[in-house]
Specification:
single chain, GTP Cyclohydrolase I, domain 2, alpha+beta, two-stranded antiparallel ribbon, about 210 residues, 5-stranded mixed sheet, GTP Cyclohydrolase I, Chain A, domain 1
Length: about 210
């Protein structure tokens, strides 16, 4: 079974409530067992007092940090789309995001700036942040995360255009490897009028970055 099919099979919508709860409990137990083994491989004693509960705690933490796998964009938005004749840009700036780099499973964190030009419908502002979390709370690379946010907003809202900028710091660069403490990675995704119209694109970049 491919990774994508595993995610689909374990999605809450694919099983009843009891089955989902049982699956979640089983996966938490299995994760704790693997973390217990990992501690031993690293040269630690998982039975010493300070580490005795670490496998269960770490398993719960990992489930929380990757909970985006069990949520779809449609579920995150829910009934939060409204008919509205507003045709100017809507921008939600500086949405905090926390994710895990899929290469080293170390955190990266930063902010997302998400904008769209409506086409007869608008989305609740909190739903924009929820869409960011759907994809941030997975093993990620920043480039894909940026595209997924843009594609999801475009799919659920069908606006005239979407613009997303993500700026983040990566602990895999700060704690290991090149150890560059002040590096910042910026990625962007432009759809529709944001890609086609320079005036819209310039307005978005100016508002998102706070520059005159």
């Amino acid at each position: 079974m491919s990774g994508g099919n595993v995610v689909t099979a374990l999605h809450p919508a694919a099983m009843n409530g009891d089955a989902w709860a049982a699956s979640k409990a089983h996966r938490a137990q299995r994760a704790a067992e693997l973390i217990h083994e990992l501690l031993t491989v690293l040269g630690e004693d998982p039975e010493r007092e300070g580490l005795r509960s670490t496998p269960e705690r770490a398993a719960r933490a990992l489930q929380w940090l990757t909970r985006g796998y069990s949520t779809s964009p449609e579920e995150a938005v829910g009934p939060g789309i409204f008919e509205e004749r507003h045709d100017s840009m809507v921008l939600v700036r500086s949405i905090e995001l926390y994710s895990l780099c899929e290469h080293h499973m170390l955190p990266f964190y930063g902010r997302a700036h998400v904008a769209y030009v409506p086409n007869g419908r608008i989305i609740g502002l909190s739903k924009v942040a929820r869409l960011v979390d759907v994809f941030a709370r997975r093993l990620q690379v920043q480039e894909r995360l940026t595209d997924q946010i843009a594609d999801a907003l475009e799919a659920v809202l069908r606006p005239r255009g979407v613009g997303v900028i993500v700026e983040a710091q990566h602990l895999c660069m700060m704690m290991r490897g090149v150890q560059k403490q002040n590096s910042m990675t910026l990625t962007s995704a432009l759809r529709g009028t944001f890609a086609d119209c320079q005036m819209t694109r310039d307005e978005f970049l100016r508002l998102a970055t706070g520059r005159p």
